[in-house]
Amino acid sequence: MYLGEQLISPTDERMRLSAQLGVSGIVIDTRPNFAIQGDDGAWDAGKVAALRRWVEGFGMRLEVMALDVGSVLLDSLRQPDRAQAIVRRLRKDIQAAADGGVDTLKYTVAMVGITRTGVTEGRGGMKCSTFRAADYKAEADARFSYWGVVLPEDGTKGAQSPVEAKGAPETCGQVMASEAGGISEAEGWKAIEYLVGELLPTAEKAGVRLACHPHDPAYPPGGLNGVHHVLGSIGGMRRFIALAPESRSHGFNFCQGTVAEMSPNPTEAVLEAIGAFGPASGINRIFMVHFRNIKGGYLDFREAMPDEGSVDMLKCIAAYRDAGYAGILCPDHVPLSDVDPGRERFFSFCLGYTRGLLQAAGVRS
């Protein structure tokens, strides 16, 4: 295992910082990634290769890129012709990634973004994104949820506003639950099965791994505004893997925080999932890790720095080690603060803390 960072449109200076902090693997989360698109809007293999060489020039590896699935999941239920057009572009992107030397792509099944209901004050006055199902309101969803790569509003001066960004390309086709028209459990699975069925054969042929981010957060029974999060439980994750049980290209962007949100016993849930989906399970399904913590658990939590949450992070490191996982650990969803608007110092803390845990667990990185 080793340190990774997930970055959006990083500059040379930001890449230098990552290298100086001891990062080995880079995940490019830019969505849409206009810099590597060709004239037809699909990725260009030559531009992917150039991006990979640029990362390598800083002494790191380009390990993963984000596949922007846009509105394809919702469209597969409502506008199938539009969904098919997106699928054709995604197949080209997968092949271009392979031809450009990148063998892992992550994607999300979130049709309605990453739902949050507010912000609460954390250590030293930092702003922590929260989800309390009992507090859910459409207007809170609009303001405090993550849409694509747009951060939730925390009320500080200059903060990005998901409300103002509504409909922008950076929201990646996601809408509020109140606008989705209801998505039953059956429809949720139908959309996911459609996407996996349409993309996995291309990925397998190209030698590319598709890393799915589960639904964040788990929704209560009956959903929210008629929308169900079917990949909001370990049972749902098992069902997802069962869609292609023999495929080595079918797995997870294993978001530890998201898995922790699935249970009132967060540490136990994460340990169970590592055992179920890591290499020791037979076929490795953990293609990358969002190594993050939360305070609380199922239906009531806030985001947290890695050292202060409800998940025992050292036990998790030991579990990854014992399961044979040897990939990247990326910090994610750190709190926000007006004294660290770019969150670089917070992410630096996370990286240093993770390095310490790896050393404490005897993991060479």
Automatic annotation (TrEMBL):
Protein name (database record): mannonate dehydratase
Pfam families: UxuA
Organism this protein belongs to: Telmatospirillum siberiense
Biological or metabolic pathway of the protein: Carbohydrate metabolism; pentose and glucuronate interconversion
UniProt entry keywords in alphabetical sequence: Iron, Lyase, Manganese
Transmembrane feature ranges: none
EC code(s) of this entry: 4.2.1.8
Function, in words: Catalyzes the dehydration of D-mannonate.
An example Gene Ontology biological process: D-glucuronate catabolic process
GO function terms (MF aspect): ferrous iron binding; manganese ion binding; mannonate dehydratase activity
Catalytic reaction equation(s): D-mannonate = 2-dehydro-3-deoxy-D-gluconate + H2O
Family label: Belongs to the mannonate dehydratase family.
Keyword Iron: yes
Gene3D superfamilies per record: Divalent-metal-dependent TIM barrel enzymes
Cofactor(s) required for function per UniProt: Fe(2+); Mn(2+)
Source taxonomy: Bacteria, Pseudomonadati, Pseudomonadota, Alphaproteobacteria, Rhodospirillales
